[in-house]
Automatic annotation (TrEMBL):
GO MF annotation terms: symporter activity
Stretches that traverse the bilayer: 150-170, 182-204, 216-237, 249-271, 283-302, 314-337, 343-363, 375-393, 405-427
Organism lineage string: Eukaryota, Metazoa, Ecdysozoa, Arthropoda, Hexapoda
Gene name of this polypeptide: LOC108079932
Location in the cell: Membrane
Keywords assigned: Membrane, Signal, Symport, Transmembrane, Transmembrane helix, Transport
Family: Belongs to the bile acid:sodium symporter (BASS) (TC 2.A.28) family.
GO cellular component, one term: membrane
Protein name: Ileal sodium/bile acid cotransporter
PANTHER family, per the entry: P3 PROTEIN-RELATED (PTHR10361:SF28), SODIUM-BILE ACID COTRANSPORTER (PTHR10361)
Amino acid sequence: MGHTKQNPARQLLILILGSGLLLAGVRGDYGDLAGNWLVDFGGQTELRLSEGESHQLTLHITNVRLVDPSTDYTFYVYSKDEAKAASLVTVRKEEFDASGSWQGPVEVRGVRFGYSVLLVDLALAADVKESYPSPLPLAVLRSRVVDERVTTYVSAALALLMFLNLGTVLDLHRLAGIVCRPVGPVVGVVSRYAIMPALGFGLGRALWPGQWPLQLALFYSALAPSGGLANICTVFLKGNVNLSVATTTINSLLALAFLPLWILVLGRLLYEDDELAVPFGELSGGAAALVACLAIGIMLRLCVPKTTRLIFRFLKPLSVVLSLCLVGLTVGLNWFVFLEFTWQVLVAALCLPLAGYLATYLLSKILCRTGTDALTLAIETIVLNMTMPIVLLQSSQLEQPQLDLVLVVPIASSLFSLLLVIGFYGVRRCLGRNKRQDEDGFDHKQLMADQESESTAVYQQQS
């Protein structure tokens, strides 16, 4: 047979690739270097520890059988993600006994909440490596500073103060007209419980395929009815406050029916999780408290006009303070979630409110709603609730630290929806278009004038 002459360029390419493999290290399949060597992590199948906590386990490496007994080798024990957990142990050939076994302590320290694994690698002198195929899963739990219930209860109290504040500015005549011809609230209900869940479900499946906890977090963010922040945004954008409050109230009451329905359909069938639950106590209590605060605000306006006059005067600054307290409290106590911020979270937090705004505004115009009502319903839809999705996720039987990892989705979505509205408000102000468009639009000065007229009329009747 004749000798085949190889192409010099091909030989150079093979040389370069071979040099690169030697520099980077060659990772072989398990069992190629030392047979089926075994690792025992002290009988543990998973290690759970808190941030800053250290745990020492007994590691046992056995059945190390090299083809050439004179070959030098080293075992490395380390965590895959050093930002989550820290561990590094080196075991050299000299530490093994004649049967190819070694036993010793390995310390693992929790660094930041999340998941990692404890890996065991075998490396030969020529920098050829292979890994044990069954690493030890590590779960690092967040150190609790404040009880989660404190955040929920204080946030609920601030939200109820907003509704009490807004109840004093409602016009009962216009509110009755909205209830008698509920086209606007129906659009709000369809947007909240049909359009937004569909958007949240689709975005979640596209951004996090196979990661149902993150999909569920985005779905709950889209499904939860908006709170008082949407009504406050309506005030500043000269929207229809009566329609906004009525839609928020109706959506909060209907949540008792639609949330279980959606969770049954999507949560248990598509997400294949039979442990999802609905916190009926929190939902019903929140809805009842919301209606009660609105009723108290209306009664104050009718019975104690002097008190409501003071509320009218400081309506906007008081609303801003309450809103900042609500957002600041939730973000401040959950700041750790932003350590898990990814591009998928950014896309979800931007696309969900933007798509919801466009869909709701278009639906409102198709049904011949005024520009003020269309703006109001769109704002009511896209200002996402921050507290209720967290409560729903806490009731979904997610284990820690998985629950803490997915909280970034509702918090980021709510913050970005609010930032979008603030940006929209700034653009309208700069262009001089943030004005009352029709008689249903909110006008603080007109409200003050009407209140003064009512007070004067009452005073004259008493005289």
